[in-house]
Protein: ABC transporter peptide-binding protein YtcQ
Organism: Paenibacillus segetis
Amino acid sequence: MKKKSFSIFLTTLLTFSVMLSACSGGNSSNSSKESKDPVSTNEGNKAAVVEAEGPTEIKIMLPLNTSETPPDTIKTEVEKITNTKLTYQFFPADTYEEKLNTSLATGSLPQVVYLKNQTTFVQMKESIKDGQFWEIGPYMSEFPNLSKLKPEILNNTKVDGKLYSLYIGRPLARQGIIYRKDWADKLGLSAPKNVDELFKMAKAFTEQDPDGNGIKDTIGVVDRNELIYGAFKTVSSWFGTPNTWGEQDGQLAPEFTFSQYVDTMDFFKKLREGGYMNQDFAATSKTDAVNMFTSGKAGLYIGGSMQDIDSLNKDLIKNVPDAVLDTHSMVAGPDGKITQWMIPGYNNVALFPKTAVKDEAELKKILAYFDKMMTPEVSNLMYWGIEGIHYTVEDGKAKAGDDKELIEREVKGYKDSVIGEAETNGMYQPYNVLPGRIHAEELLLENVKFGVADPTAALDSATYTSKGVELQQIITDATYNYIYGQLDKAGFEKQVESWKSRGGAQIIEEYNAAR
């Protein structure tokens, strides 16, 4: 009797289940919609399963270029849109390499690791070759938005012909001068047309009391402890120095073997000896250099990005309300020619450590998050903030809000992590109102016309990968010591020979063989 009752109950339950299935599938409008909706495909069903599993948890490490860690305002909104639970590990940019190397050595890197710049990417190449990071090239075609990333830039980030990273796109040539136009106007100076006029401006900003306080308390150039993204490489390109590597007698050779590199060192040596730049620039952090400029004590900020004028202006006018900044980059060398060094289309990349990302399935979930990041909705949120709070849309462009401190505090940390560029992720272009920034955007286009690419950007050298950063320190130290007057030309050339004997000659050979 009990068995019969149970059979009747089971039959009734199954019948009821079939009826429910029929009802849910019998709506003709729903059937029609599902036949057209991508969600009804196998890929869509897989996505639905992922959604059902709950948010994807992702830990991300990246450099912080502001003084404070951002609150969760932007992160919370991103999590809602992308169905993720994000944990950001921010570390100060000035000490980021140290933290990166320590975390790599201890196997404590999170699932996503942003580097700091192209130099740290070089540092990671040996670890990439050792198999410590996931190769992502084979999976890119599965993600429609990641597939939009520019092939020529992706090629510049490949290691041994394989893709391991996603890039943060940047204009090819952003560097130039941000200067005190009010000082220049007061002293009857125009934007420098050549390196001689640049020197004269630095001297005048130091000696002719441009702030009018009757005290000799200003300097021309403020620089920092960075030969690439500080002033040195930008001025060096104006002198005609090749971009990292150049051609001599039909062979590739490093930039510091060219006479123009020595001319640039002489230029900075004269600036320093004259007191026309901060004396301890080789020990000055970016933060301290920015603070010196925005305090009103320096007139020329060279290198980096002319787009930084917005943040510099914001902080400067707090201290000097009447200050006026402008941008400039068309500076000719001694031969009368204008040249600008160019980056390979990115300034940073994100990698995926195998110690943290356990298997292919987890990697694909993380890549799916980045695929969503490359939609206008998410990229605008992360780059510009929340519409109506951090920015508004005017003429189809993003106009940053008036509360610059709010934007820097809440948005800047996330802005620096957006993959791709406006052409590939669909985010808004900026709507600029500051005259100097409008000028900067015009100059970015002009710079490319005079751009010089690094001929080794897509080449590989095993010795450079393993020893390049270590060997570069020889040249960095020698350059600073020359400018500081602690080495003469013969002493500098001796250090170049040391670079060659300790592996540099092999690098030269390998790059030339890879052409």
In short: Residues 241 and 260 are 5 Å apart (CA to CA). The two ends are 87 Å apart (CA to CA). The longest strand covers residues 56-64. Residues 489-514 form the longest helix (26 residues).
